[in-house]
Design the sequence.
């Protein structure tokens, strides 16, 4: 287990450097001068543009810029925005909000997706099974930004049940609808996977043996069926964490949430790469750690899995 964990941690290093370099190149190569339009309707003075280019090392080769970024990041220095605000302060303020939003989305995804999929798998070809199929098909067909705008208009503007935009405090109640919007697609995929896994395992030999031994149906489902069906579901939930982060960029922008996704959304519009690159790096780290935790959970769910 220790050797496996060490090997996985070592594998993180090239992945982290490769992804951050790719993100760095793509973001800093966005066409247009980020300082040319920062003086309102008037063109910025040439001296100001040159000074900003020198301060943010834009005159140096891209590899040198990336080297300075990595060196500073390893020392805990994420740099300053174009407005001279520490990026680390912005990330520290936004992270708790995004964590609350992700927890709401994950709770919705696990409770609705897994429960609906398990029940549909146990009651194949029933009315509920067909209802889950149609619902998931509809959820997969509607893009996140369309669903977000629609719910914002319907629940916030027409019915007045929610506030169209989330306040600066971003309370748990305000994050329910944005969390549902983010989790809609992944919930549908999770329900489909859970339904298929349960339906397949119901025909497995170990389940038929447990039934033949006269075990109660509750024990057959809870102990034998669900435990063996959870491995692909846990894998998908771990991978979905990255998807939720990407979805948060669009959804936080729609509902004006001051989380990490909203932070990226606003600074992409401003061509401010000083914020986009560190937050994207944080997303990469979260995705890698989530996958590592999922791999370690395999051994807990199925003791036959070994890490050597």
Sequence:
């Amino acid at each position: 287990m220790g050797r496996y964990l060490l090997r996985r941690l070592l594998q993180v290093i090239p992945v982290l450097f490769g992804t951050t370099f790719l993100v760095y190149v793509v973001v800093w190569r966005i066409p247009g001068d980020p300082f040319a339009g920062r003086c309102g309707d008037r063109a910025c003075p040439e001296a100001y543009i040159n000074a900003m280019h020198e301060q943010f090392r834009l005159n140096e080769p891209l590899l040198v810029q990336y080297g300075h970024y990595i060196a500073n990041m390893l020392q805990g220095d994420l740099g300053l925005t174009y407005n001279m605000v520490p990026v680390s302060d912005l990330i520290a303020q936004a992270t708790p909000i995004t964590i609350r939003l992700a927890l709401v989305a994950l709770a919705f995804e696990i409770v609705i997706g897994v429960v609906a999929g398990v029940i549909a798998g146990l009651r194949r070809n029933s009315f509920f099974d067909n209802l889950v199929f149609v619902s998931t098909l509809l959820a997969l067909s509607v893009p996140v930004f369309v669903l977000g705008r629609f719910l914002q208009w319907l629940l916030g503007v027409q019915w007045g049940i929610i506030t169209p935009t989330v306040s600066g405090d971003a309370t748990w109640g305000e994050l329910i609808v944005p969390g549902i919007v983010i989790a809609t697609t992944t919930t549908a995929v999770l329900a489909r996977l859970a339904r298929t896994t349960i339906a397949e395992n119901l025909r497995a030999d170990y389940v038929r043996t447990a039934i033949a031994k006269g075990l109660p149906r509750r024990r057959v489902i809870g102990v034998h069926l669900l435990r063996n069906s959870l491995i692909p579901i846990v894998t998908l939930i771990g991978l979905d964490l990255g998807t939720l982060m990407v979805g948060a960029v669009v959804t936080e922008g729609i509902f004006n949430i001051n989380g990490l996704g909203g932070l990226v959304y606003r600074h992409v519009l401003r061509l401010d790469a000083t914020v986009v690159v560190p937050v994207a790096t944080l997303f990469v780290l979260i995705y890698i750690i989530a996958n590592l935790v999922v791999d370690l959970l395999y051994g807990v769910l199925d003791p036959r899995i070994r890490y050597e």
